[in-house]
Amino acid sequence: PKEIFLKDYKFPDYYFDTVDLSFVLGEEKTVVSSKITVFPRVEGSSYPLVLDGQGMKLISVKINSENLKDGDYKVDSRHLTIRSPPVGTFTLEIVNEIHPQNNTSLEGLYKSSGNFCTQCEAEGFRKITFYQDRPDIMAKYTCRIEADKSLYPVLLSNGNLIEQGDLEGGKHYALWEDPFKKPCYLFALVAGRLESRDDSFITRSGRKVLLRIWTPAQDLPKTVHAMYSLKAAMKWDEDVFGLEYDLDLFNIVAVPDFNMGAMENKSLNIFNSKLVLASPETATDADYAAILGVIGHEYFHNWTGNRVTCRDWFQLSLKEGLTVFRDQEFSSDMGSRTVKRITDVSRLRNYQFPQDAGPMAHPVRPHSYIKMDNFYTVTVYEKGAEVVRMYKTLLGSQGFRKGMDLYFERHDGQAVTCEDFFAAMRDANGADFANFLSWYSQAGTPVVKVTSSYNADAHTFSLKFIQEVPPTPGQPVKEPMFIPIQLGLLDSSGKDMPLASVYHDGTLECIAKDDQPVYTTVLRVTKREEEFVFSDIPERPVPSILRGYSAPVRLESDLLESDLFFLLAHDSDEFNRWESGQVLARKLMLSLVADFQQQKPLVLNPKFVHGLRSILSDASLDKEFITQAITLPGEGEIMDMMEVADPDAVHAVRSFIRKQLASELKAEFLSMVKNNRSSDQYVFNHPNMARRAQKNVALSYLASLEEPELTELALHEYKAASNMTEQFAALVAIAQNPGKTRDEVLADFYEKWQHDFLVVNKWFALQASSNIPGNVDNVRKLLSHPAFDLRNPNKVYSLIGGFCGSPVNFHAKDGSGYQFLGEMVVQLDKINPQVASRIVSAFSRWRRYDEMRQKLGKAQLEMIISTNGLSENVFEIASKSLA
Ligand code: HT7
Ligand code: ZN
């Protein structure tokens, strides 16, 4: 397979001005015709025109209405080359045939539940017709769709509907025109039996936009929350960024078969059903929150991605990092900012940090790829969002907004690079960003070590930073990064001290602004080693470092255990208050893991229990914050910090601490369950979600004790629940423990919900991720359950992906978990390479485990790589994992 490099980027020889597409959709085949106005980049030049195209039958090619002869062009399995096109502007007409009904890759044009739909990002358009399938080719499109009227009453594409009508033979057609230039990855078509929930939004300039969410008729009642989310997102983008929607129609279509979450096609977003459909009875608070975030995300792409797009796929984070940042801010403003930040940082730590430390580590802007689909990663998305957040931390809200305004002023309608975004931020603010660009080019999570000292005579407090960026594949040596460290200093009563000035790099910098005291400041750490000395500090402070998690780094400070407990109790920065508890928990878990490995008895530090008890009883704290604060770091996070990851030890220790906490804090947890019950109607808002979260976490702790009356309590909550959030949490609590109750409740749940495929997926995932030893056999059985289907990505992610989340069973010492996954990857690859390559990633960190597991994991990767006809997608992940 061919590797593509950023350094080899070349401007295209030809651009396209207008593209008229026509689809005749049929049961046996679909005929695609395109008419493209082509012009050369350099006037008067003539080069061969190379079009991408894969897996389709070419019927005819015309230039300026003349059929081309055999020798005028060449077709191979990947390209159509026009040998010597005419000089100047010309029209190119192509007719080809495709077979969407056989397309199980869910890329290009395919069928989902009998309806036609498309997915073109990243390189799916080349499976529809021959084209220059690259994002810097931006053109204006029309799209005519012709299909049987009774089977496909709804025909949708991008832009405005300009004509429709009936045709002979029970057929009909629709003609769509998109007035905005776009790259082909934003093209979309949907044809099917769908109905819509309609609403409208009046933009700030007074235009009325028709909003339509399309689903099969029976699902329409479940689109209320999606519509609420869309309208909230439209309003938020106007209020916060001054960005208004630019067409009179915005369509969202929900489809059950989709490789990722959703797609921002211009004015015709296509969504995985699970990110649209919700009702209190069938969706959890987490589902509701995900829908809000993703509907927002795809809508926000209209400006950050569609109006301004990427020059090439290496720049993906230009649109994705920025849009994730925007959706994070949107969700923060709609709920609790602290809790949103905590969940986002946890996600970064649990998924991105391990990627950044493994064989697939790549910079936010990768240097090369074999299959672009493999680079829709937590690094490009989530670390990319952290990079955007750092601009805001450095510039403040107003400065960041000025940068965004300049970015749109300069680049609307263009395909640009990460440097263009950087330059807009810099130029709008006259800012000095030093070596900030290395965040785009260097992989690996920087480690920042901080040591502190207080000089009681001089009343100065010094913080010394040493940073190191670990080596990653292809990048053995790194330059220091520009790390914004937001911080405050706490006095002995727990209050923030006013910060007057700091001595740094030979100069005294004033912190106070306009004679107003400042309590939180941002230090600019740019060198390998750097010292900052605060003056006028009357007593030894406790520093609260990296407030709000101001940079995506691993912080190692010399704070004492007592300092961490102090911060947990007092820090005015809620994020760091939570973080201090997590640092304590991580230290505790690691030391207990060592004890477990040495077969020492496990004893829980009473100070830890005491710290959590004070959090539980602090009435001033937000309930959802408390829930986060009493949730232990994930097993993956702890394994990631170990020299040799030991899944059994980490799982045993985490279970031990949970049980100890449950028993020590039983009274508190029991009242949390009682006090947070409610007979109210389900409401999706912060106070109600916080209440449910608190009740659910308490119930989960209690059920871990396996005491009959506590299992009974969980069973009672399961039966009494009037919404899925509480019902499913009770089921999860019960399912922790093997036995009759577990089996009966699982059977009852399926019985109740078998008609709802999204709820059944939760049921699959819960069983698959179970840590009950030997569960692989149960998962194998579930593969042949009537509700399971290897062709549906959601089901695969629930059952097979869910299984990989079990430290006990996926990493089983007898290799049964690895063998199961190896078999699944090979089977899935023949159906859907994108899904297979996501699943094979579970093997990528095989070197982190003990020798025996290494051998077993490696053997599976070798088996996969030697499989005949392996896709490029899986090949890339498997070969990089073995390298
Ligand atoms: N921009 C969208 C990316 C996407 C995608 C990429 C590869 C293969 C399938 C895909 N489906 C959607 C989603 C987003 O980030 O908004
Ligand atoms: Zn996106």
Automatic annotation (TrEMBL):
Keywords: Aminopeptidase, Hydrolase, Metal-binding, Metalloprotease, Protease, Zinc. Belongs to the peptidase M1 family. Residues 562-883 form the Peptidase M1 alanyl aminopeptidase C-terminal domain. Gene3D superfamilies: 2.60.40.1840, 3.30.2010.30, Neutral Protease Domain 2, Peptidase M1, alanyl aminopeptidase, C-terminal domain, tricorn interacting facor f3 domain. Residues 227-438 form the Peptidase M1 membrane alanine aminopeptidase domain. It catalyses: Release of an N-terminal amino acid, preferentially alanine, from a wide range of peptides, amides and arylamides. SUPFAM superfamilies: Leukotriene A4 hydrolase N-terminal domain (SSF63737), Metalloproteases ('zincins'), catalytic domain (SSF55486). This is Puromycin-sensitive aminopeptidase. GO terms for biological process: proteolysis. One of its GO terms (cellular component) is chloroplast. GO terms for molecular function: alanyl aminopeptidase activity; metallopeptidase activity; zinc ion binding. It is an enzyme of class 3 (hydrolase). It comes from Erythroxylum novogranatense. Its cofactor is Zn(2+). It comes from the Eukaryota. Its EC number is 3.4.11.14. Residues 444-557 form the Peptidase M1 alanyl aminopeptidase Ig-like fold domain. The keyword ATP-binding does not apply. Residues 25-186 form the Aminopeptidase N-like N-terminal domain. Pfam families: DUF3458, DUF3458_C, Peptidase_M1, Peptidase_M1_N.
